[in-house]
Amino acid sequence: MDTRARPVTEPGVNRQVKRVGMVIGIKPDQIEAYKDLHAGTGVRDLLSQANIHNFSIYLRQLDDGQYYEFACSEYSGDDYKADMAWLAAQPANQAWLALCDPMQIPLAGERSWAEMAEIYCNA
Predict the structure, then answer these.
(1) In the chain, which stretches have pLDDT less than 50?
(2) Cys bridge to 71: 7, 22, 33, 98, which one at CB 3.0-4.6 A?
(3) CA–CA gap between residue 111 and residue 106 (Å, rounded)
């Protein structure tokens, strides 16, 4: 497993940026703990090394009473699949997910965050 620092691609430097949107449910009794967890530095350095930038998470309670997290980010690398595989293999990321995953409720048929299709962007 490669745990060395990866070359980081500066966002927007002569390449097409891939915008990513995702959704997942969250257990209502875990919202404050989840917010507290994300108030720290978490895995920000690993996200940057995987060419992920401008990562934001939003929270919303829908009419069904369930709470959902909506995330968006920008990817500026050359090989999204390889960078995501590298990120998934990092022990610090695995430990982070071991903390976060039990707080969340994946959508039906999903194991974690579900990627959403982009239908509009004013970039």
Answers:
(1) 1, 12
(2) 22
(3) 6
Amino acid found at 105? I
pLDDT of residue 1: 45
Rg over alpha carbons for the chain, rounded to the nearest Å, is: 15
A 10 A CB-CB count for 87 gives 19
Which domains, and CATH codes, for the chain? 18-116 (3.30.70.100)
Which token pair is 69? 């997290």
pLDDT in the model for residue 13:
54
Q: How far apart are CA 85 and CA 82, in angstroms?
A: 5
What pLDDT, on the 0 to 100 scale, is given for residue 16? 82
